[in-house]
Amino acid sequence: MTEPFKPFADDKSLTIGDLTIENDADRIAFYGDIDITRDKLGREHAENLKAVLDAICAALAGDAALPDRIAAPDKPDRVNNPFQ
Fold first, then answer.
1. Domain range spanning residue 42?
2. 33 - beta bridge partners?
3. Looking at residue 77, what is its pLDDT?
4. Is there a domain that residue 75 lies in?
5. Does a structural domain hold residue 45?
6. Are 49 and 37 spatial neighbours (Cβ–Cβ below 8 Å)?
7. Residue 5 falls within a domain, yes or no?
């Protein structure tokens, strides 16, 4: 990770291994997978993932106005496949 992760601050995504972290104003989504292997690359992945989670926890802990729960995201409308 080259620059610090700023949770809930921008619409950028971050990739660690094959794990994608999508940053949005009201939620952070994780998808994909990551292998934490017992080698230097595994340590790097673990440290980067920990930095992201620590930043998220700090941002949430510092927000006194957190609601109990936010609404689920809207599901996108279905679009017909133009290639059929």
1. 13-61
2. 18
3. 72
4. no
5. yes
6. no
7. no
Q: Could you tell me the strand order of the sheet in which 13-16 lies?
A: 13-16, 18-23, 28-33
Q: How many domains does the chain have?
A: 1
Does this model's pTM top 0.90? My answer is: no
Q: Is residue 82 part of a domain?
A: no
Q: What is the DSSP code string of 9-66?
A: S-S-EEEETEEEEEE-SS-EEEEEE----SSHHHHHHHHHHHHHHHHHHHHHHT-TT-
Structure tokens at 8: 């809930």
| Residue pLDDT, tens place only, 47-60 | 999 999 999 999 99
Mean pLDDT of the chain: 90
User: Count of CB atoms within 10 A of residue 36's CB?
Assistant: 14
**Segment 14-33, tens digit of pLDDT:** 999 999 999 999 999 999 99
- Phi and psi, residue 10, nearest 5°: -150, 175
